[in-house]
């Protein structure tokens, strides 16, 4: 089918790196037409290493292209990216909260097949919503809760009241859910009456903020539209090349 199967955690984290790098304004699209593609490949490689998944073949990733970046070029670009990110590669993403929320909101006896379906749908919604800039206004825990709420509303309707009660008091959850519903084209799920007691979700939700003081607890929407290059780049990139 021409598509590369990449673990959702790797794909989400790679887009996070791309966005953070581009926010530094260090990539000259017009002067270096090959740079966006090299950036995407390098960020994917870094993300795979951070998530400790099986090594991704850079040759396989580039198999359908007219030219390929060599390993040295990719490794040097990885260092450029990490330098721009001040080596802060351990970003927290909404995907890290899915398992916890599912355990908290769907107590035993659990239907594993149903939970897997809810989680899979939530992951799909998270990946589809990530390019939306407005999603960056919400903490990863709130984004994860919104995705699971929407997924449960589609797949696990019988369990929805319990989930709604668990997350109803989570700050900014309603606003995040509205953004996700608009971006992904799903039907918004009513949260119902606000819960008075603290829940695991509300405790995490209290850490929500809208400042850029800590990138590690935010999810960053994709701002890149990576273009394909049509010429070979063999020269390894360095910080001076962007000038």
Total count of strands: 0
Given the C-alpha coordinates, what overall shape results? elongated
Query: With helices defined by DSSP (H or I, 4 residues minimum), what is the helix count?
Result: 10
Radius of gyration: 20 Å
Termini gap: 39 Å
Whole-number mean pLDDT = 73
Q: Tell me the CATH topology of the largest domain.
A: Cyclin A, domain 1
Domain count: the total is 2
Keywords: Cell cycle, Cell division, Cyclin
Pfam family, one: Cyclin_N
InterPro entries: Cyclin, Cyclin-like_sf, Cyclin_N
Organism: Aegilops tauschii subsp. strangulata (Goatgrass)
Structure characterization notes:
With 243 residues, this protein is mainly α. The chain contains 10 helices and no strands. It folds into 2 domains: 8-90, Orthogonal Bundle (Cyclin A, domain 1), CATH 1.10.472; 94-210, Cyclin A, domain 1. Helices cover 49% and strands 0% of the residues. It starts with 7 loop residues before the first helix and ends in a 38-residue tail after the last helix. Mean pLDDT is 73; it is low at 192-236.
Quick synopsis:
This protein is mainly α. Helix content is 49%, strand content 0%. Helix 7 (140-155) packs antiparallel against helix 8 (160-167).
Main features:
243 residues, Cyclin A, domain 1, single chain, mainly alpha, elongated, 2 domains
Secondary structure blueprint with pairings:
Blueprint: H1 8-23, H2 35-50, H3 58-61, H4 71-84, H5 98-105, H6 112-129, H7 140-155, H8 160-167, H9 173-184, H10 200-205
Pfam family, one: Cyclin_N
Family: Belongs to the cyclin family. Cyclin D subfamily.
Domain Cyclin N-terminal: 4-88
């Amino acid at each position: 089918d021409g598509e590369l199967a990449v673990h959702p955690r790797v794909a989400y984290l790679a887009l996070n790196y791309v966005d953070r790098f581009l926010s530094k304004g260090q990539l000259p699209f017009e002067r270096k037409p090959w740079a966006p593609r090299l950036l995407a490949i390098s960020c994917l490689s870094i993300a795979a290493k951070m998530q400790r998944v099986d090594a991704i073949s850079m040759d396989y990733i580039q198999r359908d292209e007219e030219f390929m970046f060599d390993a040295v070029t990719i490794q040097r670009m990885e260092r450029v990216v990490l330098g721009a990110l001040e080596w802060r590669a351990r970003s927290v993403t909404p995907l890290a909260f899915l398992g916890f929320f599912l355990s908290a909101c769907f107590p035993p006896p659990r239907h594993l097949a149903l939970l897997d379906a809810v989680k899979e749908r939530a992951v799909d919604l998270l990946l589809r919503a990530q390019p939306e800039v407005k999603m960056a206004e919400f903490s990863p825990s709130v984004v994860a809760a919104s995705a699971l709420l929407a997924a449960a509303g589609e797949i696990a309707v019988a369990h929805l009241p319990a989930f709604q009660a668990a997350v109803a008091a989570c700050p900014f959850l309603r606003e995040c859910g509205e953004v996700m519903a608009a971006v992904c084209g799903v039907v918004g799920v009513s949260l119902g009456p606000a819960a008075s007691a603290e829940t695991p979700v509300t405790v995490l939700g209290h850490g929500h903020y809208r400042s850029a003081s800590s990138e590690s607890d935010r999810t960053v929407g994709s701002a890149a539209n990576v273009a394909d290059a049509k010429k070979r780049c063999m020269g390894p990139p360095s910080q001076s090349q962007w000038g």
